[in-house]
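Hi L., both proteins are below.
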Amino acid sequence: MGYQELFTAFEAEADAEQAVAMSAYMRDQFPYLGIKTPCRRALAKDFLKAARKAVEVDWGFIDACWARDEREFQYLALDYLHVMEKVLTPKDIPRIKRLATTKSWWDTVDSLDTIVGNIALSYPEVNKTLLAWSVDDNFWLRRLAIDHQLLRKERTDTELLSRILVNNLGQTEFFITKAIGWALRAYSKIDPEWVGAFIDAHRDQMAPLSIREASKYL
């Protein structure tokens, strides 16, 4: 199945009533076809299975998904990127940045967290880019930098995490203060003493939401 056929299959499953509800859940940021996640993944299963055999990412397909208005197409592109993580390299970072900064909302940006994080884990030179993102004017890039290590566990680079978090203390943007809390909460499952010490050292600069989220497992 080519991706144009897949797009047609998506369109055939449109549910106008469900689309309204899904868009409302996302504060009407984007229109939807009304395809729930299990159905979307079932429709794309064969396409994504075939994609696993490729040795490079089809950015033309991703661009086609991002050009569509309906949000399910962006989700399809992200499902595809997760399948293709094994072949992603630093050369893909500028393109991922474009995804993070266009049609931006927490649903797509948060899906890019681990994608970028896994590239950086394999190619540590990407850490310089993440540090730059942590002070970017675009707060979605900062959110992505803050949370890119969420699933690292014992492999978390605490020096990098600390620098990125400190770069974002004193912020009032909800999506940043929440991200700070999530990053610390995730690592508190591995090293609660480190997280507790970070909170104690920076409490005066941290938003109450960040402290509350970070302290959940302490």
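That was the first. Here is the second:
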Amino acid sequence: MANQDIIKKTIAEAMKELVREKQLEDISVLDICERSEVNRRTFYRYFSDKYEVIEWIHYHDFLQQILVPEEHGLYYYMAASVRLILDDRKYYENTLKYRGQNSFRQYVSEHLLRLCYPDFRECFPSDELYNIYLSHSIETAFDFLELCLKTKPEITEGDLLQQFRNLFYKPGKRYAELLEQEYQHPREGSTYQTKEPSRVQKNNYPL
């Protein structure tokens, strides 16, 4: 390994240690330098700021560690990702909370959009509609993953993936059933029964 790669990896490992302990917003370049025992001049020789370190980690420690078959989709990518994420749970739990510059969610989503693009494209009449659907699916996957890491500390890889399947399969199946019912009986039913909004009621003055 070249010397510059060793230094970059040292800085990245220090950054990962810090992220396991606190939120990215609270980490400074000085913190990274102290933890990695690299001076600021050396740090800035290789990275422009802490966000570039995070991007380096996203690429080398996540994207480059994932193996997926040529014919893959969102579920394959999720399965390949879960193992890495659970192996370093605290780091990814804190990383997923961050929504700002160079966030893990944003960085990986851009790659997921390209990886999953062929899966359902033929179901949609335009790229615009398909991008809405695919973006929503990916955001749902990230929200689900973040929730599991936060609320289910003992969850296993198998259980997490099974719940992920159900997250998409069961509602999808139910959507199909409901749409079929609507098509068969489009004009049946009664009006929705609820109280009139209080603000509207207050304005119903007698003439």
